[in-house]
Design goal:
This protein is an alpha+beta fold. It contains eight helices and eleven strands. Strand 6 and strand 7 form a beta hairpin. The radius of gyration is 19 Å and the shape is globular. The structure holds zinc ion (ZN). The site of zinc ion has 4 residues, from strand 9.
Length: 267
C-alpha cells in the first residue's frame, strides 16, 4: 500500500488534508475521498471543495474556480504534490485577519492591550498527531506532535492516561464561532467572556493542547483534582510543556488547568 502523507498544508482560506482522514457526506463524496491523495477543505465551515485523485483534481462544489483562496490552495498543492517532502517551517501572513476582526466589531488593538496577548499566526504545515478523544484527527506543529507523543507514552508508563481534547484550530474556525453567536444576537463582549478573540488563541500556533483524562469531562476546572493533572504538574516541563493560564494569570483569562503549550524542548 502506498504510504500516505501525514501533514496538513495550510493556506489562508483552504486547508489541504492528506487522503484517508475525511469521510464523505454522500456516497459520491465517499467514493472520491476514499481514493484522494489530498482533499481541499474550506476552513470557515469545513466544506469539501475538491479532491486530488491519481488522474487529477475533481471538484466537489459547483463553482470551484470562484472559491475564495482557490489559487493559493492550488499553488500549495502543486508545490507539495502527491509526494510531499517536509517543507521549511513557517507561518502564514496575518493580513486579512485584522480587517475581518474589524468587520466583526472587534477592536483587536484594544483587546491586545487589555489582555497582553498578541496575534498568533497559523503555521504553513501541521503534523498528524493521532486521534483526539472524539476520534477526530489531531493536528500539531511537528515539534509539538513529537513532544506530545513522548509525554503521552511516559505518562502511560506511569499508569496515567492523557487524552488530547483539542490541538490546532484555525483563525477561520474561531471567526465562525463568533459569526454564529453574533447572528444569534450575542454581543462581542458576551462572546469574549467565553471565547478567545479569533487570532489570539494559542491553539492557532499548533503548539497548544487541551488535555483530558478518562472519565473526566473535557475542559472543566475539576481536571485539577485528577491524577493526570498532578502528573502534568510534576512532569510536563521535562517535555517542554507549560500551563498557559494558571489562576490569576496576567491576561485575565479564566483558569484553564487543561490547557498546555509547548514552548520548545528543554535544554
Ligand atoms: Zn485550550
Amino acid at each position: 500500500m502506498r504510504a500516505r502523507a501525514r501533514q496538513l498544508i495550510n493556506t489562508a482560506d483552504i486547508e489541504l488534508w492528506p487522503g484517508g482522514l475525511l469521510r464523505g457526506r454522500s456516497n459520491r463524496d465517499a467514493r472520491i475521498l476514499a481514493r484522494a491523495q489530498w482533499v481541499l477543505r474550506r476552513k470557515r465551515d469545513g466544506r469539501y471543495l475538491a479532491a486530488e485523485l491519481p488522474e487529477g483534481l475533481v471538484a466537489l462544489v459547483p463553482a470551484l474556480a470562484a472559491e475564495p483562496g482557490i489559487d493559493e490552495a492550488l499553488d500549495a498543492l502543486s508545490r507539495h504534490g502527491p509526494r510531499l517532502r517536509m517543507g521549511p517551517e513557517g507561518a502564514l501572513p496575518l493580513s486579512g485577519l485584522e480587517s475581518r476582526l474589524e468587520a466583526l466589531g472587534l477592536d483587536a488593538d484594544g483587546y491586545a492591550e487589555r489582555t497582553g496577548l498578541a496575534l498568533v499566526p497559523e503555521p504553513v504545515q501541521l503534523q498528524f498527531a493521532g486521534m483526539d478523544r472524539f476520534r477526530r484527527p489531531l493536528w500539531l506543529d511537528s515539534d509539538t506532535a513529537r513532544a506530545w507523543q513522548r509525554m503521552q507514552n511516559a505518562a502511560r508508563a506511569d499508569g496515567i492516561v492523557l487524552e488530547a481534547i483539542s490541538g490546532y484550530r484555525s483563525h477561520d474556525y474561531q471567526l465562525g464561532i463568533f459569526e454564529r453567536k453574533l447572528e444569534r444576537g450575542q454581543t462581542v463582549a458576551e462572546i469574549l467572556a467565553v471565547n478567545a478573540a479569533p487570532g489570539f488563541s494559542e491553539h492557532h500556533s499548533g503548539r497548544a493542547l487541551d488535555i483530558g483524562t478518562l472519565d473526566e469531562p473535557p475542559a472543566e476546572e475539576s481536571f485539577e483534582a485528577t491524577d493526570a493533572f498532578a502528573w502534568l504538574t510534576g512532569n510536563a516541563g521535562d517535555f517542554g510543556f507549560q500551563m498557559s493560564y494558571p489562576r490569576d494569570n496576567p491576561h485575565g483569562i479564566t483558569y484553564e488547568p487543561w490547557h498546555w503549550c509547548h514552548l520548545g524542548d528543554p535544554a
